[in-house]
Amino acid sequence: MIPLWMYLLVAAALFCMGAYAVLARRNAVAILMGVELMLNAVNINLVGFWRYQQPLNMAGQAFAAFVFVIAAAEAAVGLAIIISVYRQRKSVIPDEADTLKG
Amino acid sequence: MAVLNEWAFIGVFFAVAWVFPFAPIFLARLVAPRKPNPIKQSTYECGVETVGDTWVQFKVQYYIYGLIFLVFDVEMIFLFPWAVAYRELDFFAFAAGFLFIFLLADALIYAWRKDALEWV
Amino acid sequence: MFQVPTIADLNLGLTLPALSLALGACVLLLLDLFVPRERKEITAWLAMAGIAVSFVLNLAGFNESGTAFLGTFAADQFTGFLNIVILITAFLGVLLSLDYLKRAKIERGEYYVLLLLSAAGMMFMSSANDLIVVFIALELLSIPLYIMATFRAPDLKSEESGMKYFILGAFAGAFFVYGAALVYGATGTTNLPEIFAAVNGIIAAGGSQMFLLLMGTGLILVGLGFKVAVVPFHMWTPDVYEGAPTPVTAFMSVGAKAGGFAGLLRIMVVALPVFVLKDGQTAAAWQQTFWLVAAATLILGNIVAIAQTNVKRMLAYSSIAHAGYIMMAVAAAGTAGVANEATRAALLYLMAYMFTNLGAFGIALAIEKDDGSDTGVDNFIGLAKSKPALAAMMTVFMLSLTGIPLTGGFVGKWFVFKSALDAGLVPLAIIGVLTSVISAFYYVRIIVNMYLKDGEGDPAAGATRYVNWAIYVAFAGTLLMGIFPWIATNLSDTVVLAVEMFVR
Q1: Which in B8, B112, C36, C344 has the greatest CB count within 10 A?
Q2: With contacts defined as CB-CB under 8 Å, which chain A residues touch B75?
Q3: Nearest-CB residue to C4 (from B90, B107, B113)
């Protein structure tokens, strides 16, 4: 059987790719995809831990299901906000949204 | 080594997946006769050339169906285990599932009354 | 075969305050469809009724404690106290919004539904006893806030604020849940008390489990640190606070912090207190990290606030600084024996901060023009002439934020510094006192503007009836907590969060 650490490695790699996308991409939709990638990395972790350590306790699987649904809800709200910004500015690039200066 | 054997299947599958579509294309290249003329080379997209830029803007309204679908679609993840274990459930668990469906209906009624389901 | 739970196992009675609010929001969503467009204040009154029902249920069950939903939901005095803070915040939030939404021409019923849902998320957070519930509560409190921050669309600032908040909030949420997954992997459970029980074995065994646990704790700190806006995860705060509609800023500056710190305290104090306790050590290993975060937050928040010319931005940096004081109490909770005292200090601080901050934002809202402009520090010039009552109350709020005696802010700071000293964090307490002195600089500047500088004085057109009510409540709360602190301390004295601390 494939050892658990391989799954964890894939998950960690996915998570880092997602985090990189959030930090490096300039397009809001691509950033959102990065966040989804991070959440899916979490799901790989959760299901991996569940299968290898506690197959009889459903907590890990239930957690993964909740992460799925919340990711979808977040994506829906996020896309709605991005569309609303796009209609105003004809741009989805957060760097160009600079009315507020930090 | 057991690990490698499992991966080997994926490797074989990967190779076959490449060979399968490319072999016919390559064979067709070898065997098929080629006599091009302007009519044959014209666009075969419902027989009509596109007019103007194909990258047109869709109305934002369409996204709302997408978003509503996205949210309702994933709720299935909670209903599926409930449906699978349906025979084992007592009345309370049955009612709990229905409470969830009522909450979904609540959101659906909201979307309906806000005319988000109208096709515009 | 799994044992299917019955309704008696769920202990629904304990969950009533939070559940009633969540269900109330769902019902309100439907009722709002039948409220005519020009009479949306009906929705607001219904929302306030929902909050009041939840408040009464919370007070009635204040002293009951136990777990519900098969151990995933804990109701105790910690929950009860925080729920009071959250519900008052939500109530005053609705009051502040009523006329503001009309003035800004963004009056829609969904606003109040979202506010109720967010408050319900904060309440779930205060009683979460399971990592899954913490995550759901975290998102339930954040997602409505993203929408509320964007509510002034098509105003550019508001949309930008919402988008920034969304991107960074979602990013932080992913960090939190990755950490939660690692803690689950290390301990094999998501239940906080069970994690506590498992941690002892992991410390004895060490190795890879230990590594997972450390990574997980760190990532959870990052995720919740974003939500409560502590340095170095504070960058979004000023932009989001400035761009969001002012009542939303008021609501989220208190509510999101209360929720975030509730989660942080629950996880750190209930689940991970004995974390790497070696021989002779009396403090949790995360204490050092929290110490540093608290110190950095205090220094940066207070110093950058001095340079701000917009009141909303100034209050944003001030809210970062106040997160630092609460973080100080959380750091103190890492010392053996001080955990409960420090938890109480954090709760008292949150309550004082709630009244004071809501009041300050209420007055900023009163000065603001219909298009959302004129929230500069200079707009306070001469306010003592045009609106002496508002100026007097603003003075009290500013003094309370500084921590001058006879105001709520002083009581909060007193308990936080005391717990830090009891925990042996003397340098941190000194940093706290010094930064409080620095903070006087920018708070007093507003008082000087109001009383000593000559000017026309703003007519404060936004100080309509309901806004005034909210400011009066906040003012009364600030003074009551300052003059009769035992009203709050008696309530908080029953709070016991840490059980069987440091068994090794």
Answers
A1: C344
A2: 69
A3: B90
Token pair listed for C84: 């009071």
* Subunit partners of chain A (3 or more CB pairs within 8 A): B, C
- Domain encompassing residue C353: 8-492
Backbone angles phi, psi at C68, to 5 degrees: -135, 175
Query: What residues in C contact B106, CB-CB < 8 Å?
Result: 26, 29-30
Note the Cα C374 to chain centre separation in Å.
26
C7 close to B (CB below 8 A)? yes
Nearest CA in chain C to B112: C33
Minimum-distance CB partner of C153 among A66, A74, A84: A84
C504 within some domain: no
Q: Is C33 on the interface with B (CB under 8 A)?
A: yes
Query: B93 at the C interface (CB within 8 A)?
Result: yes
Q: Which residues pair with C68 in a beta bridge?
A: C73
Domain ranges for chain B: 2-113
- DSSP structural state of residue C459: -
> In a structure prediction context, what are the per-residue pLDDT tens digits for chain C, which is 504 residues long?
456 667 777 788 888 999 999 999 999 999 999 999 888 889 999 999 999 999 999 999 888 888 888 888 998 899 999 999 999 999 999 999 999 999 888 888 999 999 999 999 999 999 999 999 999 999 999 999 999 999 987 788 898 899 999 999 999 999 999 999 999 999 888 999 888 888 878 877 777 888 888 899 999 999 999 999 998 899 899 999 999 999 999 999 999 999 999 999 999 888 887 655 555 566 777 888 899 999 999 999 999 999 999 999 999 999 999 999 999 999 998 887 788 889 999 999 999 999 999 999 999 999 998 888 888 888 888 888 888 999 999 999 999 999 999 999 999 999 999 999 998 899 999 999 999 999 999 999 999 999 998 888 888 888 889 999 999 999 999 999 999 988 888 888 888 876 544 433
Contact C5 B106 (CB under 8 A): no
Instruction: Indicate yes or no: CB of B74 within 8 angstroms of CB of A75.
Output: no
Please judge whether B63 and A79 are an interchain contact, meaning their C-beta atoms are less than 8 angstroms apart.
yes
* Residue C5 near chain A (CB below 8 Å): no
In this structure, which topology does domain B2-113 adopt according to CATH? Answer: Methane Monooxygenase Hydroxylase; Chain G, domain 1 (1.20.58)
Cα–Cα distance for residue pair C373/C367, rounded to 1 Å? 9
Residues of B in contact with A2 (CB under 8 A): 3, 6
Q: Which residues in chain C have Cβ-Cβ distances shorter than 8 Å to A78?
A: 146, 166-167, 170
Would you call C132 and A57 a contact, using CB atoms and an 8 Å cutoff?
no
What is the total count of domains within chain C? 1
Instruction: Please indicate whether, in this complex, the C-beta atoms of A69 and B78 are within 8 angstroms of each other.
Output: yes
pTM of the model: 0.89
Chain B residues near residue A32 by CB distance under 8 angstroms:
none
Q: Other CB atoms closer than 10 Å to residue C376's CB: what's the count?
A: 17
Q: Is the distance from CB of C394 to CB of C450 less than 8 angstroms?
A: yes
ipTM summary value:
0.92
CB contact under 8 A, C154 and A87: yes
Of A41, A87, A94, the CB nearest to C167: A94
DSSP-derived secondary structure for A1-66? ---HHHHHHHHHHHHHHHHHHHHH---HHHHHHHHHHHHHHHHHHHHHHHHHH-TT-THHHHHHHH
Nearest to C467 by CA among C388, C385, C312, C358: C358
Name the token pair of C482. 């300052």
Q: How far apart are CA C479 and CA C287, in angstroms?
A: 33
- When CB atoms are compared, the residue of A1, A65, A83 closest to B60 is A83
Measured CA to CA, the distance from residue A94 to residue A78 in angstroms comes to: 13
Tokens encoding C493: 């004295």
